[in-house]
Design a protein that fits this description.
It is found in: Cell inner membrane. Helix content is 32%, strand content 21%. It is an alpha/beta fold and 323 residues long. It folds into two domains: 1-88 and 170-323, P-loop containing nucleotide triphosphate hydrolases (Rossmann fold, 3-Layer(aba) Sandwich); 98-169, no CATH class. It is globular, with a radius of gyration of 20 Å.
Length: 323
């Protein structure tokens, strides 16, 4: 087997001395799509920012290893990380308008990566940037090339950000809610583009999303996060067929079903993700879990739970009782 493109081990991140990511580890292989799922506040985006070397100033990586093609990124200085970003690794951000330069036409922002990282001339970079704008579903791409972010809708800015990330065909692509602002037709087009990218170039993709429909459509493996930790990881088929953690089971139960009874309330998970610094002792889902008991005051290890699967729960044999 070839070594993973991205390997994260025992990653710890804190804000103001309080942990927000607590011992997270996973890998993404060449041509593989791994999704990170979970409610807001679980630490998914912070994990992605740490991989890219883009943690906000208020956050700090306390320990952990992040390797890209075997290269330890945590040991690189800011200049070396800057050379990697946009070349070997790229990220689609959740807030595209805030991530684009308002003083530069979007086309030049996309072409810039080709000039800097691929050494292309201005005309060839412009040609490829216009072609990529068309690939992500932006109409009249030659005209849009010269427009500024404020002249585009939020959905178009999102597609421009996606074009910027894909233009250099990076070895690793991190996508943080990449299709949130897009209608379903464009969403399907973007997901198909990402599938084609991984098939043609072997790009490893780490996708952060709340949309389990997107997960079912595109993922090879799924890592479920809760309160700074991964609580379950398995292939996408295994996750949907049988869950080994109550949180995963309850998360999937909230998805509307076409064969469900009409005019009924959707299931919900009571409570909320605990605030950082106020995580409960032991299993952090215990305050919301119907199966919780005294044993759950001890932290369950993220251990093997079958073939190519890990889960962190003391009561995996009881999960079938949950609705």
């Amino acid at each position: 087997m070839t070594a993973p493109v991205l390997t994260v081990e025992d990653l710890h991140i804190s804000i103001g001395g309080k942990p927000v990511v607590d011992g997270v580890g996973f890998s993404v292989g060449a041509g593989e799509i791994v999704t990170l799922v979970g409610e807001s506040g679980c630490g998914k985006s912070m994990t992605a920012f740490s991989v890219m070397g883009l943690l906000p100033r208020v956050a700090a990586r306390k320990k952990g290893s992040v390797r890209l093609n075997g290269k330890e990124l945590t040991e690189l200085d800011s200049a070396a990380m800057k050379r990697l970003r946009g070349d070997e690794m790229a990220m689609i951000f959740q807030e595209p308008v805030a991530s684009l330069n308002p003083l530069m036409p979007i086309g030049k922002q996309i072409a810039e990566s080709l000039v800097v990282h691929r050494g292309l001339g201005g005309k060839e970079a412009q040609r490829q940037a216009i072609a990529m704008l068309g690939e992500v579903g932006i109409p009249e791409p030659a005209m849009r090339f010269h427009q500024f972010p404020f002249e585009l809708s939020g959905g178009m800015c999102q597609r421009a950000m996606i074009a910027m990330a894909l233009i250099t065909r990076p070895r690793l692509l991190i996508a943080d809610e990449p299709t949130t602002a897009l209608d379903v037709t464009i969403q399907a087009q973007i997901l198909e583009l990402m599938k084609r990218l991984r098939a043609e170039t072997g790009t490893a993709i780490l996708l952060i999303t709340h949309d389990m429909g997107v997960v079912a459509d595109i993922a090879d493996r799924v890592a479920v996060m809760y309160a700074g930790r991964i609580v379950e990881e398995a292939s996408v088929d295994a996750i949907f067929d049988e869950q080994r953690h109550p949180y995963t089971r309850m998360l999937l139960s909230t998805i509307p079903r076409l064969d469900g009874e009409a005019k009924t309330l959707l299931p919900t998970i009571s409570g909320a993700v605990p605030d950082i610094g106020f995580w409960p002792e032991g299993c952090r889902f215990s305050t919301r879990c119907p199966l919780a008991d005294e044993q759950c005051r001890k932290t369950p290890p993220l251990a093997a739970a079958g073939t190519d699967r890990r889960a962190a729960c003391w009561h995996q044999d009881l999960i079938g009782r949950l609705a």
